[in-house]
Each structure stands twice: as structure tokens, then as C-alpha cells.
Amino acid sequence: MKKRKEINRRDFLKVLGTSTTSTALLYGCTSNNNSISSKTSVQGEVPTDKMTYRTSLSGDKVSLLGYGCMRWPLKASPDGNGEIIDQDAVNELVDYAIAHGVNYFDTSPVYVQGFSEKATGIALKRHPREKFFIATKMSNFQNYTRENSIAMYNQSFKELQVDYIDYYLLHSIGGGNGIDTFKERYVNNGILDFLQKEKEAGRIRNLGWSFHGYVDVFDYLLSLDIKWDFVQIQMNYVDWRHASGRNVNAEYLYGELAKRNIPAIIMEPLLGGRLSNLSDNLVARLKQRRPDSSVASWAFRFAGSYPNILTVLSGMTYMEHLQDNLRTYSPLQPLTNEEKDFLEETAQLMLQYPTIPCNDCKYCMPCPYGLDIPAILVHYNRCVNAGNVPRSLQDENYFQARRAFLIGYDRSVPKLRQASHCIGCEQCNPHCPQNIDIPKELHRIDDFVEKLKQKKEISL
Description:
It is a single chain. This protein is α/β, with parallel strands linked by helices and 460 residues long. Helices cover 40% and strands 12% of the residues. It is built from 18 helices and 12 strands. The protein has helices at 9-16, 20-23, 36-39, 87-99, 116-125, 146-160, 179-187, 191-200, 215-223, 239-242, 250-259, 280-289, 295-304, 319-328, 337-350, 373-386, 398-412, 438-454; strands at residues 53-55, 61-63, 65-68, 74-76, 83-85, 104-106, 133-138, 165-173, 204-211, 230-234, 264-267, 309-314. Strands 3-6-7-8-9-10-11-12 form an 8-stranded parallel β-barrel, surrounded by 4 helices.
């Protein structure tokens, strides 16, 4: 593929339309262009028999759209103290997905505050076992002992109500102290040997791992004398060449797997939703090329266009999102090389916005001091994309932007859960796959909020 051209400042301003007139249109921290109905504006029948499938090393015919079970819909708990998974909504989504060709479901013992496996198992149990492939993980982040790890493994079978697991992953390899942490979690305690024996016994059909971390750990695992059946990586048109934090460019990760004929499973195709919630000007840029396609469909087409991809995971909380993704992959229209160049330019433009690379995965939760960390960061990013992060008292639209940010902040995050309550304990930092210095960002946002409240000069 030819080398991408760089975006200079003049082109950037031209594409974004940075002027007093365009800025004046961006008052709210949300916009009509980024609503769910707009992102899924293509209406009509969703095909039931046109899903694109890829074949695994074990011969499975896997749907290119995989269901990520990290973001199941919630409802108020009966006692009014919090939220629980809305099982009826989960059942409806799973039924619709299976009826339209989706057969891969990815969960974990730690998703949705520990209840995802159970909810997923209840929904899938209502379908013949041969209709779906289930993926779950060894998520032994806190307690690495052999006893705890095996107990977690056995509990997954109970929660999912199955007697074999199709795709089993070592969860989130690459963080902590790198290779040393990997050995503590899986080698020194004998768990990797245990899982390989479970595969030989047929209770695991495919064994692999998900990666968030340092490239030396990725290379180390590929060098082991182990037959990995798949590897799960973060891949999207921004991370392809512009990965942030401790993540590695997906172009390298995908290439190393393809060389070894190891299928890749894709997580974060929307970069935690950020690629479906672009600024109005970037939305217009994509819509100009494909007016009847959603913004999200560009990202899903990118992820699915590479032949060594087995499935692309999406955490579809709403039926509209599921239907839109089904249209994208039923069947897939692969990107042309020219469209890949176009998305690379879009990525470069997007990176001009000073957003925080939060993917709303909630691995940082719960905060011991009650902060809603993802909600704080997501609100900030939303306002950046909408142009509601004023930089100076001299900004022409300072007061409109100030009002939008502060009102939206109070609506999005209860006061007792806002950034002002962060004490900097840093318990969240080791769990962040994006390697965000969370307390630093929270203190920066809190300082920004206080200056807005006092109408003081701002520095970001």
C-alpha cells in the first residue's frame, strides 16, 4: 500500500471548516449527527442469509460480526440501589443476532461487574448448542494462585451452562510488568499447562489470548512452542498506525499473526465508541463519500477487510447498533485501497483533537472513592468533539461552550462521583488497557471545571 500523505495545518483547517461560523454551530456536547438514529440511518430489512463468514483453524464457520458481551443493557435493580442486567433485553438481542447469522459470543468473568457470563449463558441456553460459539477468558487479574484460577475456569462452565468452551483466552496479556506478569499469571502457577491439557481433553476447543500491552510480550508469546489457535488484538483505522499509550500499532500486530497463519479476532473496532462519535465535520467528511452509510460502518468495514480476521467484536447494547452492524457485514463490502487511504487521512484529522484515549471499557472500575471514571472521561471527550471545550476567555463562544460543558457534566456525572473527589490513589492505573494516567487526567479535568465555574483563564 502506498505511503499515506501527511495532513498539513492548512488542509486540516480546510477540512474541518475551522472558522467563527462553523464554531458557532457547535454548542451542545452532543449533536444530531452523532445520535443513534443518525448513525444507523440506513433503514429497511436486515438480511438473514447474507452474513460474511470466515473459517477458523479448527474448521469453524465463524460470523465476521462477533457479539461482545461487555456492554449488555442494564435496568434499575428492584431495590433501587443501582443497576442490573436487563435479561429480557439480552435475550431479545441474542435471538435477533442468531436469527441474522451471528454465531460468536465473547464474554468474561469480569464483564458487567461479574454478571455477563451468567446473562450470556441464560440467553444462549435457549438455542441449540451447535448454533453458537462461546468465548470466555481466564481473567485472573487480582489473584494469580492456581486454586483461584482453576476455580474461575470451572465457574465459567457453570455460568455459561456449557460442557465445553469453543474459544478460551488468556485475558489481557502484556500489561503490568510485562513478561514477568505473564509468567506469574499463567506459567509459574501451572495454569498454562492446565489449559493445554483441558484442550487435549476437549473442554477447550481453541486456545488463544487477548493483547493489551508491550510489544516484547506480544513477540514473546508468539515465540513460545505452543500452537495458538487465535489471538485477539485491538484494531481500527486509528490504531492501525497511531496506537496510543502502551498499545502497539495494529499494522504490526496483524502482520505478525498473518505471517504465522494465526487468525486474529478484533476488539475495539470503534475505539471504545469514539469512531462512531466523531466531530460534526468529520461526520460530514464520511457522509460525503457514503451518504446512506453510518459513521460506524466505515470502521467495521476497515476491520473486516483484512483476510486474516476471523471475527470483529462489537459490544452492541442497542438493537439499532446490532442492525446497523448486520447490514455492514451482510455481506461485507471490503474497502478499496483508495478508501483505506481516505480513512488514514481521517485518522490523522481525528488525532488533531485533544481527546483522552478512554475506550469506556470500565476496567478501572469500581473506584474505591466512588468516582465514575469512564463517565467523566467520556463527557470530556464528547465535548471536545462537539467543540465545547473553551480554551480562553477570549474565545468568541466562550460562554455558550462553558454553559454546555458544565450543565452536561452535572447531568452525566453525579456530583459525588465527579473528578473533584479523586485523591490520586492510582489504584485504577494498572487496570487501564490504554495506559492512561487516570488521576492526572481527572485532576486536569477538575482544574478545568473549576476555572470554568470561576470564569478564569484556562490552560489545557
